[in-house]
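dumping this here before i forget
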Amino acid sequence: MRHDPPVKLSRSLFTRRRFQFAGALLLGALLPVVMRGTVLSGRPGEAATINALFGNLVAITIAFWMRLSIETYPGIRSTYVIFPTALTGHGLVVVAFLLTRLPYDRLSLAMGFTANVLWSYFLYFYAERSIRRRIAVVPFGAVARLDEIGNVQWHTLKRPRLQDAAGCHAIVADFAADLPDEWEAFLADAALAGRIVYQVKQLSESLTGRVELGHLSENSFGSLLPARGYFYLKSLGDFLFAVLLLPFALPLMAVVALAIRAEGPGPVLFRQARIGYAGTRITVFKFRTMKPVSIEDERRAAMTEEDDERITRVGRFLRQTRIDELPQIFNILQWQMSWIGPRPEAEVLSTWYTSELPFYRYRHVVKPGISGWAQVNQGHVAEVADVHYKLHYDFYYIKYFSPWLDLLILFRTVKTVLNGFGAR
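structure:
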């Protein structure tokens, strides 16, 4: 751990949240009204223009609140969420106008959306992209692991003085360690002074997006239990969204089925026994992407190797775009799966992993999903060593199970589909 000298923490005006929010309101809500009454034809006092003003105010507030909520999670970059959150905020406002039949100025709303997005991207590329966290470390307990985490400047404190941490964004300590009295008083003073104080384990999880299996104890499982209220609400939302999506998905599935048939013999759908919620056995549907060949080793047959020769030409495209997973909409309609959650493993592989890895079966405490936290961070894996590492991500998802984490995974899934990350 480096012993860097204390420095003064300088913060640009452009990195302050209040300034960012005020700028968004000014450019995204007030500017369109001004332009409507000057440069563009229109009257700023019209009911439609006034409604659009308040609509932009609400939409920008929603988008800003969503960004603050989502960006607390690790591995996130503002570029992933700026456009989706702005689109969500303005989309909700447009839906509200349509339902209430209130008059609104479409051009003002469009200008507000555009200004909000451009302002947010300007802030990111001009000010936020170069920010590197500087965190003060209390030198006791299990803090050595922090050195392995990049993109953070760690400053080890030599004495319990708040002024030594003046140049740091936060302070981290191992609360389980036997801290000397003066260091415990230091942490109390830091909290009273409004300084951010992290527990080393939670900070490590937040920065890496993983829950370290080696540090799980009998008390960890209580904190890993997902929120049951959101669990049932999410299941209902999954089902309703699948019902709404089905009329649009069926024509695409028909085209894919014809393409698979045209390429060669074999069934269109691939059915496989996998382990689902609470350890129950389910049959998962996928479009067939491999040639129907016989392999005696069931475990090896259930794995997909890098550049696997069994993958067909159409199948490779389906895998890269994740369209091969689309038939799992029927698993969702049967309440067996979710859109987002740990991927269900083949029964033969799940049995193997359970015998080799401690706590593996605990990942079945939530419904399996089509996309998940491990998939957008690690991609496809099969070997035990890789699966062990993948569990770190699965347990992180379970521990921080929330709509915000699901929304973040959704945004990153779109990026993953576009760049083909982790596909085999």
